[in-house]
Design goal:
248 residues, TIM Barrel, 8-stranded parallel beta sheet, 10 helices, binds pyridoxal-5'-phosphate, Pyridoxal phosphate homeostasis protein, Ala_racemase_N, pyridoxal phosphate
Length: 248
């Protein structure tokens, strides 16, 4: 059966089993890898099915959708992560629902988050987003820029850097995808030796529905999975209604 016809709970159990098997292949326990369930475009009722099945960590790519879904699921024991590109003027809104930002990709954003967190008197777990694919269209620091960035982050005391996040090259070429994952792992390993944050930089957020088993084999501690649990995302509105905004 495909992910579209199986239930959310069954798909989630299947993903957990695959993660556990891949973790064992990499010499780690299943508990070493966290499944961050990506809920973008998925209605709150279907997200709730996953929560009822025991899922607690949820990820959203856009601030407004994240806020709305977090409000719809208020009262549930869930924790939201922001995983998409974040504009500095959305910092206030993201901090209303997210307990973690995995898409920290520039100093100006770090400074904006710090300022708001100081005002709120709280801290925030962050992941530094690294561009491992060399694609100009992707956000994130280059591996070479990362050490200097970590030094700057050390002065921002409300931010708690936990590790690194990447999006691999969008290709079916396993060797290229694994190269991206290894690049992130190498970036982390160097940072753990050299960066002011040292061993606190443990996390590797990498792998999505199509490649999360490879990512776990390469050392992922967080995988960000959506479609493997919820089924394929619908195509954009412009596909269904030619002439709608965004068509062509
Ligand atoms: C949507 C998204 C994912 C999950 O992609 P799936 O194909 O649904 O597994 C992972 N990371 C980011 C940053 C995303 O935007």
């Amino acid at each position: 059966m495909s992910t579209a016809t199986m239930g959310v709970a069954a798909n989630l159990a299947d993903a957990h089993a695959r993660i556990a098997a891949a973790a064992l292949r990499s010499g780690r326990s299943a508990q070493a890898v966290r499944l961050l369930l990506v809920t973008k475009t998925v209605a709150p009722e279907r997200v709730l099915e996953a929560v009822r099945a025991g899922q607690t960590d949820l990820g959203e790519n856009k601030v407004q959708e994240g806020r709305q879904k977090a409000e719809a699921l208020a009262g549930e024991a869930v924790r939201w992560s922001m995983i998409g590109h974040l504009q500095s003027n959305k910092v206030k809104d993201v901090l209303r629902f997210a307990g973690e930002v995995q898409s920290l990709d520039r100093l100006s954003l770090a400074v904006a988050l710090e300022k708001r967190l100081q005002f709120l008197g709280t801290g925030l777990d962050v992941f530094v987003q690294v561009n491992t694919s060399n694609e100009a269209s992707k956000y994130g620091l280059t591996p070479e820029e990362t050490p200097a960035f970590l030094k700057e982050l050390a002065a921002l005391h409300a931010l708690r850097p936990k590790g690194f996040m990447t999006l691999a090259t969008f290709t079916p070429d396993e060797a290229e995808v694994r190269r991206c994952f290894r690049c992130l792992r190498d970036t982390r390993d160097r940072a753990r030796n050299d960066a002011p944050q040292g061993a606190a930089l443990a996390e590797l957020s990498m792998g999505m529905s199509g490649d999360y088993e490879w990512a776990v084999e390469e050392g992922a501690t967080v995988v960000r999975v959506g479609q493997a649990v919820f089924g394929p995302r619908p195509l954009p509105d412009s596909h269904y209604w030619p002439g709608a905004a965004g068509a062509g």
